[in-house]
Records
---
Amino acid sequence: MPDSDVDLATAAEMLGVHYQTAYRWVRSGALPAMLVRGRYRVGSEEVEAMARRRDRPVRPRALRPRGGYGGRRNQMFEHLLAGDDADARKMIAQLLDEGVGLTEATQEVLVPALWRIGEEWHEGRIGIWTEHRASATVERILGEHHPAPRGRRRGTAVVAALAGDRHSLPTLMAAIALREDNWRVQHLGADVPADELVDFCEREGADLAAITVTGSGGGRARRVAGALRERGIRAIVGEPGASLERLQREARGS
């Protein structure tokens, strides 16, 4: 074989994996190799190709718990209604341990529970302080986790809500969804002046801006998004009710 070939142990070291992992790749055909005098030899080109494949952004595979999310949503609603931080945090931690992505857990458990809390408030069955406490609990839970998936980042995304919109939780959810989908995220939070947002995106060389909207600020957000696009920066407006999966799809341009 050519001098540029390496043995399997060296290939594993170059790829940053255990020898047995590289061996399984060879046995499955994922990493082409030749057997020379009882030892596997791998072409350096094949090692480089495998490294490039491993560096490609990969969307996390969302695992759904057996039986779906209905029971978890009801339990989360009860935890938030009671102000039970510990059990609410424990449920999300358990879902993550089971292999559910943070975006999936947020979209399928936390958001529906918060919607029910909001409906209870609108119907006058609970006080506004209960709704605020529930939002603060969810914000603390999400703040404990920082997705850092493997692979090359898709680009730099800026997430913010415009001045006058003081709801920071939607911006946090959007930031988490984009981070988990391999974006490098600059999270500016809520109440950001439009001109400051545009200036920041230009200065940071942002590839994408995600503007969250709570209430009736959609028109203004779309105007700011238009101003960003005129400067060559892709912009997405997240209207109330839009899913995090939709945000990920639009961010990828799919």
---
Amino acid sequence: MATFTFELVSPERVLFSGPVEQVVVPGDDGDMTILANHAPVMTTLRSGIVAVSVDKGAAKRLYVRGGFADATASGLTILAEVAVPVEEISTDKLAADIKNAEDDIRDAKSDEARAKSEVKLAGLRAMQAAVRG
């Protein structure tokens, strides 16, 4: 199978950079499978899992939230607001973070604090749903 260059970048680090056979991208309009020589396309991302296939091995799974994907003749680039390898996500820590965010919403002293906590909780729940598969 033909390969192409893929790069996934978050504000903190480059999570992946190299040749791949295919990448499944969680676009806002649905999942897209990108292969070599894919037609140019750009999409915003929803929270979900990017599945990266390299040399017929098991797909590397990376959680992303926010950002965009850009497929061009030279390859695929994903710039994500948040990106974490699935194997680095602790389900226990995630459950504790969700409980803390729920407590923050309940204890919020202002609408602004409540709204900020609600956004955080929504992101954590999206991560939980994506990791569960």
